[in-house]
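A brief tutorial aside. Many learners find it easier to grasp structure tokens once they have seen a single protein encoded end to end. The record that follows does exactly this for Ribbon-helix-helix protein, CopG family. Read the sequence first, then the structure, and try to relate runs of similar tokens to stretches of the chain.
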Amino acid sequence: MKLTRTQISLSDDDRRVLDAVSRRTGSSMSALIREAIHSTYGDVGDPERLRGLIDASFGTIAREVSGEELVDGLRSGRRLSGLA
């Protein structure tokens, strides 16, 4: 794995947290930050993560609706009526 040195700014509290976890786990601060990035944002182009996100989105709309119905439902016009 190729690493690129990057400078970041941390609050005193953030630094204390990383120092404490580093002492407790024996991991470097850099390793902890890389781990946090991967656990939060995943890997770029990770097909399994993308598939999981798509799977998790199923059922968010209770019934089958067309795109037109969905947009019309979101854009009811109520927010524009107050401008007239």
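Self-check: The mean pLDDT is 84. If you spotted this yourself, you are ready for the next section.
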